[in-house]
Amino acid sequence: MMQTKNYFIVALMCLFAACMDVPPSKNVSDVFAKLVEDNTIDTAAQIKELLNNMVLIEGGIFEMGCDGKYSDMCNSDEHPKHKVQLSNFKIGKYEVTQHQWRAVMNTKPAYFQNCKQCPIERVNWADAQKFIEKLNKKTKQKFRLPTEAEWEYAARGGKKSGNYKYAGSNNLDTVAWYVKNSGNTLHKIGEKMPNELGLYDMTGNVWEWCFDKFDEDYYHHSTLHNPEGPDRGAYRVVRGGSWSAPSHNSRITNRYANNPQQGTNLVGFRLAQ
Hints:
By secondary structure, the protein is α+β, with helices and mostly antiparallel strands. It has one domain (63-268): Alpha-Beta Complex (paralog of FGE (formylglycine-generating enzyme)), CATH 3.90.1580. Helix content is 29%, strand content 12%. It has seven helices and eight strands. It has helices at residues 2-19, 26-38, 41-52, 98-105, 125-139, 148-156, 172-175; strands at residues 54-57, 60-64, 82-86, 89-92, 207-213, 236-239, 256-258, 267-268. The strands form three sheets. The protein has a four-stranded mixed β-sheet with strand order 7-6-5-8, covered by helices on one side. A two-stranded antiparallel sheet has the order 1-4. Helix 3 (41-52) packs across helix 4.
């Protein structure tokens, strides 16, 4: 039995190394061995899944904000539309799941229980940071929350953007769980169509924490290169809408300010690097 377990651990170590895009090494072996020692093989498998699901986004210049053909729907904090230049970055193909959260944190904060593949929710901004800190310590990686600009660029489809109202389509039902089709509940990740970059649930299911503080006038003085939001602000940005959001709040450009100390069953997050 011990020999079988050791063989399985070695096999997973190779996968773990491959998904980090580095050859098997003492460092990776030590990290994986510690994961197995301090946690379980399931924890290591969930972390490997997070690593494998990071999508490389080619940076570029885009127009951030709302106007043009959707100008009749714009909120005041979505103006003015302005140029932003982003470097390459990675973002999660999916929102962080309840299973992945429990594997790293060993807690079950979600309101909607017994759905391992549903996005984690009822976690505040500080909780997300604790998850990231612990994940980085385990993996020796540099995970973080996406900036608001990175989030919008990725939701738009980056350089493959079709200029849709929602992430991947103008037909909200095809890409999102929202108030009219969710049945008033959360859903598993990846059940709707992805956007142009292969990212799922950028619209709907749960709002997603961004790194930035919120300022309704920030677009008037945002920096051009890799903006990270204002220096001051009591609230943090969440994006994307949720299972209870109407279509207006599900638009790619819609911004929302959320109390960083408040965790609700409407808000989760996805990782960036």
